[in-house]
Amino acid sequence: MKHGQSRFGLIPFRMMILALLGLSLSGCITLPGHRQTIDDEGFYLHLTAPYRATRGLIRFNADQTGLFHMPAGTRIELVVSDLQGEHDLEITGSPDAITYDYRLNGRRIEFGTEQQAWFASQVPGIIRRTGLISILE
User: Fold this and answer.
1) Cβ distance 73 to 88 under 8 Å?
2) Is the pLDDT of residue 57 over 80?
3) What pLDDT, on the 0 to 100 scale, is given for residue 115?
4) Any domain includes 16
5) How many other C-beta atoms are found inside a 10 Å radius of the C-beta of residue 126?
6) Over the range 87-123, which residues count as b (16 or more CB within 10 Å of their CB) and which as e?
């Protein structure tokens, strides 16, 4: 009888080992798509795209105040801290349009002329940090 009891005593231990193994292997699974994150002091950029090649299709407009082309399913989150505070810009591409969700110090503000000028001042840093070279149209 002792032998049978010890075998049942191993079941919770085995279950725990299987759970830990499953949890550790789940960290190895990569979701499809391309992700790039840059987190420098006062500058955070997170780019997601359906495929790595998709990010090369991102095009800034001529005066660099916005994007001329952004493939569907692509998203850029840019957070920059400066003397004005924390700028948070989320840009998403869809088949119909490019949308800009801009916040300054947590307050949502329309992406107007002043905000576009701020974005243009960030474009050289975006290009330098992401390695995107010929993305201007």
Assistant:
1) no
2) yes
3) 97
4) yes
5) 21
6) bbbebbbeeeebebebbbeeeeeebeeebbebbeebb
39 bridge partner residues: 44
Type of residue found at 86: E
Q: Per the structure, how many domains does the chain have?
A: 2
Dihedral sign, Cα of residue 44, residue 49, residue 53, residue 55: negative
- The DSSP annotation for 81-129 comes to EETTEEEEEEEEE-SS-EEEEEEETTEEE---HHHHHHHHHHHHHHHHH
pLDDT of residue 122: 94
Lowest mean pLDDT segment, chosen from 11-25, 34-48, 54-68, 80-94: 11-25
Residue 67 domain-assigned? yes
Q: Are residues 50 and 7 in the same domain?
A: no
Backbone conformation region of residue 14, classed left if phi is above 0, alpha if psi is from -120 to 50, else beta = alpha
Residue 135 lies in a domain: no
